[in-house]
Amino acid sequence: MTRTPGRMGKLAPQFPVALKEMPAYAAQPLPQPPSAVDWAKNVSAWPMDGNDRYGDCTMAAAAHLIQSWNAQTGESLPVPVDQQVVAQYLKLTGGKDTGLVESQVLKRWMSSGLWDNKIVGYAPVNVHNLDSLKQAIAFFGGVYVGIQVPDNAQDQFRAGKPWTLDPGWQQQSIEGGHAVPLLGYDDQYLYAITWGAVQPMAPRACRCSPEPTAEQAPSRRAPRTSSGGQARDLAHLTLVNAADTEAQAGGIGGEQPLG
Known about the structure:
The protein is of the alpha+beta class.
């Protein structure tokens, strides 16, 4: 399969300072995450959702999470098609291909919804704690992440290689900001959905910079697994149903360069 990088469209992060970190919202400490999780395996195909033509990655990432939640839970939440993703993106940008701020997308998703789907809330998660990252993926069904994409990451994507920190990555030019959902991990990689493919990403490549963002979840019950820096280095996660302490979904996000 030919792998072609799409467009960038994640604008600089804005930090919802009033939110507390995820542990403050948990009734009790989360269990240790299982050794591996794959929430993408039941999805047969990942569409581009217009991200080959527009910088609508913030919207495509949200649509991919809905697609994954359906596959995980057996629900039939409306999944937007390409034209609907692009239309919602242009509605939020005022008709211009300018990109969007992730936390503003999440705020809109929670307040008025996207494609007849609403999330209930979001809260920060420390992106430099790999166990917290894995817990968010494993127990909340997915992660909405912002990254900075250097030039060599596009070459790695075309070649079907994982995103890793190659020697000299600090000198790589940044092509732009990009939003992706993380839907799995194992002992080697985190797994992102981007540009119509599942893209492995080395954890160190995800944690090399202190620039974070925000996160989400659907207003439905999340699946359960079988296994049971600096002050601003935070990402965000959401609760699905405030009345049901076990109905939690969403993720975390951090904005960091990949190499």
